[in-house]
């Protein structure tokens, strides 16, 4: 319950920010942070809570993005319908990949590789198929207005991503406080023991990947509406998959606030990098890669793990 | 009979682990399954609870044929097992561990947690609810195994070597807990090496050796059975023991 | 159904390409077979080796085939050090951690390459880059034919190493039974690092043979990573013969796929195979049962 209070309080503060911050540059930064936090929380649901590390989350992201884009551009439907369809489609892709992988008992590194392969297949397909625009991609016409899920001000987009991120974080909180979440974590920690207690491991894992995929798809919808342009490399390429996993690993995998912590940290890191190295291509990503290595080797619980360790030390010193 | 296994067999590769095993368990009883190491006892448990598919034979529980069904289905029908090598949900608290079992019949998180507390108290873990399961002692972890299974409100529990690794005073502490479980209406089948527990708890015993049931009856009858003595002590020992008893 | 005059060259070309893929996959097979690591950085290390060949040619005038003396050793050193001081440190924890570390390495290597070398395409011109060999009616580029034989030679050399040398015996012992190997006095960390080093050394060979008929950009490794994994998985996670055959199969699949479905869609065949093998026969066509 305390976590919920902190979560809600945090998001109330975040929601109020555009009232005080008018600078487009700042708002853009905040939008990016929340966007990346959403990506990360989506991945965290499957990996941190579910124990399945995916290297191909772009498969869900891209499907959400293409879903909303294609429905608008090729079929002339409202992006609000596109949002629902995009997220549902992402969920379906997740259900398919999950059903196939879990049915055949894929775990660990093999599961990671298979998800990567699926993302690549989708990238190749979207590169070759006319209705996704093939290699050229899709351009969504600029038409500001709520009906078109586009906004004249950055603040509008900020609140959109804010709402999406809130939904994802609430879902993660719910995992910590529900039967589904308890079962998901039980399967993560010991699948056989969970099954011995009546938990259908297959169904739970499937639920986990679908929930995770839906939120990734939601992030895809946002991306499409914010940048108004998509191509196979952006939608299904490795950049999104890597970002999805980097953020929660840095912040603290399996924790509620880890993805937000990771998003903020990586953003600050990239700003510092830009100050030192300018806009030279490659250097900030190289640093991200180094951060990933360092965290995995020395801080496997991420930055949130640091907090827990020091909190425990603090508490034990008090009682001594 | 609440549980019946009939002609169950299983081989892995070339090794016949269980051969034509049959057993019957009356409701409300404590039945034990004993035998030397490697006799196939845990495999038989695994076959009964759906973790392995039998090559032959049937398993009936509470009137229904459960042969070949998935473990989670069988657990939902009311038969659960513990693991010889304890399998806690590491990194989670004792309370959260037990709650997973409680969730089988309690959908709400708060109810499941409350049920977990109640079960923990029954097995003597009430003072360690917020500890990390991985930091429990061996005795504590064994009790956690039992608690998780109990929380599912089963009709029958299969306890796999719940006393292994416990010192004599810990064994003495666990025996009344098991008896209390039976007294609450749950049937118990236990695999045990600790003879003290077998003799004082079980009303009926099956002896498994090299995958086959070689004897069954009350613990007293069974431990006097020459075939059983030979199984544990080796060929020709039954005579030796009998001679020793005659000389004494 | 296109006639044999079109199919045969496509198959033969596929075989020569496949041999190159196999060469890349041989190193990955060794690494997987011994360390049970799925080395995500394999593609970017190949890219590094290709840049090495490029700079040797452009800076020192050393041709790619002459670089065969130098590159494998240099890449071996890189691999040894990486395993000893970076990757090996991750082996204590869960399975995916090593994958994440190698992923991190691939990101670092690739982006440092972008930073230092920029994204321009570099090639190395050799007098025989455009020579062709005629075989059964197909015109096969000479560099690729050389690479084909190079791959066979490397596989043979690896086989000799593994079966006839002291090191090979130690490697096989460690692969089979790590604790037992340690108990008989084998320095397991050293053997792991040697194995990884040899696996990356193979990339040095691959780069020298590949450069004359190919190019290098920082992203060039991407195309090879999943293909190499597919070959390893197809050929059986630890079998060199399997990797060779798997490579040839994949090369042919890619070539025929490109013929029938067009260049980009043709790649799908490879990934489809990868997914299907992982699902249904993870020990590969020739691998031992797990």
Commentary on this structure:
The complex is a heterotrimer of chains A (320), B (248) and C (290). Chain A is 77% helix and 1% strand. With 320 residues, chain A is mainly α. The longest helix of chain A has 27 residues, at 201-227. Chain B has helices at 41-48, 71-77, 94-102, 109-123, 138-150, 168-183, 195-201, 219-224, 226-233, 237-247; strands at residues 3-12, 15-25, 30-34, 56-61, 64-65, 79-81, 156-160, 187-191, 204-209, 212-217. Chain B is globular and about 60 Å long. The model of chain B has no long low-confidence stretch (mean pLDDT 91). With 290 residues, chain C is an all-alpha fold. Chain C is 71% helix and 3% strand. Chain C contains twelve helices and two strands. Chain C has helices at 4-35, 42-60, 71-85, 95-117, 142-164, 166-176, 178-183, 188-210, 220-235, 240-261, 263-266, 268-280; strands at residues 132-135, 138-141. At the A-C interface, helix 5, helix 11 and helix 13 of A face helix 4, helix 9 and helix 12 of C.
Keywords summarizing the entry:
A: 320 residues, mainly alpha, 77% helix, 1% strand, globular, disordered C terminus, C: 290 residues
What's the arrangement of secondary structure elements?
The complex is a heterotrimer of chains A (320), B (248) and C (290).
Chain A: H1 2-20, H2 24-49, H3 58-73, H4 79-103, H5 108-128, E1 138-139, H6 154-175, H7 179-189, H8 191-196, H9 201-227, E2 229-230, H10 232-236, H11 238-251, H12 258-277, H13 283-298, H14 302-319
Antiparallel strand pairs in A: 1-2
Chain B: E1 3-12, E2 15-25, E3 30-34, H1 41-48, E4 56-61, E5 64-65, H2 71-77, E6 79-81, H3 94-102, H4 109-123, H5 138-150, E7 156-160, H6 168-183, E8 187-191, H7 195-201, E9 204-209, E10 212-217, H8 219-224, H9 226-233, H10 237-247
Parallel strand pairs in B: 3-8, 3-9, 6-7, 7-8
Antiparallel strand pairs in B: 1-2, 1-4, 4-5, 9-10
Helix pairs in contact in B: 3-4, 3-5, 4-5, 9-10
Chain C: H1 4-35, H2 42-60, H3 71-85, H4 95-117, E1 132-135, E2 138-141, H5 142-164, H6 166-176, H7 178-183, H8 188-210, H9 220-235, H10 240-261, H11 263-266, H12 268-280
Antiparallel strand pairs in C: 1-2
Helix pairs in contact in C: 1-5, 1-8, 1-9, 1-10, 2-4, 2-8, 2-9, 3-8, 5-6, 5-8, 6-8, 9-10, 9-12
